[in-house]
Amino acid sequence: MSAVDLAVNLGGLRMKNPVAVASGTFGTGREYAGLVDIRRLGAVTVKGVRLQPWPGNPLPRHVEVPGGMVNAIGLQGPGVDVLIRDSLPFLCEAGVPAIVNIWGTSEDEYAEVAARLDGVPGVGAIELNISCPNVKEGGHAFGADPRVVSSLVAAVRRRTRLPLMPKLAPNVPSVAVFARAAVEAGADALALINTIPAMVIDIETRRPALANIVGGLSGPAIHPVAVKLVWEAAQAVRAPILAMGGITGPEQAIEFMIAGATAVAVGTANFIDPGTPLRVLDGIEAYCVRHGLAAARALTGTVECGRRG
Amino acid sequence: MLNADYFLMRLDAPDVTASARPGQFVHVRVTGLDDASLRRPFSIHDAEAGVLALVYKAVGRGTAQLARLAAGERVSVIGPLGNGFPLDCGDRAPVLVAGGYGVAPLSFLARRLERRGVLLAGARGSADLLCLDDFAKRGWETRVATQDGSRGERGLVTDLLDAWIADHPEAIPEIYACGPDGMLRAVGARALARGARAWLSLDKHMVCGVGACLACVQRLRRADGSEWVGRVCHDGPVFEAREIVW
User: Fold this and answer.
1) Does residue A79 lie in a domain region?
2) CATH number of residue A117's parent domain
3) Which ipTM score applies to this complex?
């Protein structure tokens, strides 16, 4: 038994520890079950899903860049009903809460997806995707205006009792405005950050590396950007934050928590070392022991920004 | 090193080789690249007595670094992954069709197939023809074509396939192929025209290798004609020609 209390409460989602995996990087959990003891994870965020099946973007869908990758998968998915029938029972039996990332092209669609997930065994929270850079309708179109965010969160709030967690875009002038809009409209927690819009060109062919032309940057390159945005959002609202962006080991996860995050999600690093989330978990616990912290949640928001001494 | 551009790497990996089947692949983290570099998939060239063999061409940053590794260094490998080739071809004649370094997994297949057959190998030039001895020493017939005519017939590997079919008017071949998409599509079309099966190993850029990220998807067709989108890493990389919607 660990001497450190690792449990956290992410806006009503009770996690046995603060380490989750990010949407789109872990499938629905089953894909990695042969490589990782997923039962130890605090939560699994499931790939973005809408009401109907969605084909996603043409290939190529990804390109490697220094410090990470740029992807434009385009939210390919089976639709929420198939997800509920075929995929969610696995996580439920594994005892790991599912955070389901949802999207749509209208407020009604978001709300309907959320309503269908309400009461499904094993679903612990809804991550509202309002910041995917890779679909033309939906996704980012809802995350670029705080009034639209507010209206969408309120609309979904009316249709579900599940903890509701909008995933905010990094590329806004002030994340605090969006954080406040989301929380005032009924969000229980915030997830940030999504990938950063990006583009790569093959200079020999002069063609974009991605069929979608543009995509989203992830990986270690975006970590300092994410820390700054998590810190700003944590200043603006009291709602707990699920932080992600460039975690490759416990250090970045601890940094996020110090900046103000209640929990963290490992994303792109899963592709490179599937053992990363559990290494992060073990590292957080060791850090707490080393710093005399009885509970991991005591780390949250402990950054010292006063005058240097 | 096989020649100036092609390399053979042997890894002591009994956990991988124990269950490896021809057509499967491994996902390799290239030692010495920066921490953010993605894994690279490689088809299994051989897996005997605990030794995993991979054949690759030094074409990019990752493979160039692999080629620089010294004997004794450690490499992180996930695998075996994917479905592999079916090994039962009944009484049909196995015809292996290789484009360039697509020959790598077919060598492992030739070792495991119960029946001997023919290898048809095509490449740009003689320097791109690899591993032919592996087949010859196991009693396989080999036929070769190069686009520049530097070895064998001048032409494409599909020309060799056409010639083999013409030479064997009574035979229904069981075709196994690995190479570029254009070649696989042409091989598949010939198999369909002949009423034969062709098992095609697709080479797609992958990220996770386990079916989670949806980077390497392929449009596919079910027996009832309905379409679906599969993941080459998880549902493949080997598909029968009738399954693929090009």
Assistant:
1) yes
2) 3.20.20.70
3) 0.94
Q: Which amino acid appears at position B19 of this protein?
A: S
- Domain assignment of residue A209, yes or no: no
Across the interface, whether the CB atoms of A62 and B215 are under 8 A apart is answered yes
B208, closest residue in chain A (CA to CA): A271
- Give the model's confidence band at B2: pLDDT under 50 very low, under 70 low, under 90 confident, else very high: confident
Q: For residues B141 and B132, give the distance between their C-alpha atoms in angstroms, rounded to a whole number.
A: 10
CA atoms within 13 A on the CB side of A168: 32
Q: Residue holding tokens 């965010």? A: A149
Please judge whether B204 and A270 are an interchain contact, meaning their C-beta atoms are less than 8 angstroms apart.
no
Among the listed residues A92, A132, A288, A305, the single catalytic one is A132
Closest by CA position to B161, among listed B103, B100, B97: B97
pLDDT band at A2 (very low <50, low <70, confident <90, very high): low
Q: How far apart are CA A172 and CA A174, in angstroms?
A: 6
**pLDDT tens sequence across A193-218:** 999 999 999 999 999 999 999 999 99
Using CB atoms, which residue from A24, A35, A219 is nearest to B213? Answer: A24
Nearest CA in chain A to B228: A55
Q: Do B213 and A66 touch (CB under 8 A)?
A: no
Q: For the segment A18-54, what is each residue's pLDDT rounded down to a tens digit?
A: 999 999 999 999 999 999 999 999 999 999 999 999 9
Domain that holds residue A86: 8-58+69-197+216-299
In a domain, A121, yes or no: yes
Q: What is the per-residue pLDDT across A269-285, written as a single tens digit (0 to 9) for each?
A: 999 999 999 999 999 99
Q: Which domains does chain B have, with CATH numbers?
A: 6-81 (2.40.30.10), 93-203 (3.40.50.80)
This prediction has a pTM of 0.95
**Whether residue A132 lies in the annotated active site:** yes
Q: State the pLDDT at residue A308.
A: 83
A165 within 8 A of A224, measured Cβ to Cβ: no
CB neighbour class for B67 (10 Å; exposed up to 12, middle 13-18, buried from 19): middle
CB-based burial of residue A235 (10 Å sphere; 0-12 exposed, 13-18 middle, 19+ buried)?
A: middle
Q: pLDDT digit string (tens) for A100-127?
A: 999 999 999 999 999 999 999 999 999 9
Total of domains in chain A: 1
Instruction: Report how many Cβ contacts below 8 Å link chain A to chain B.
Output: 85
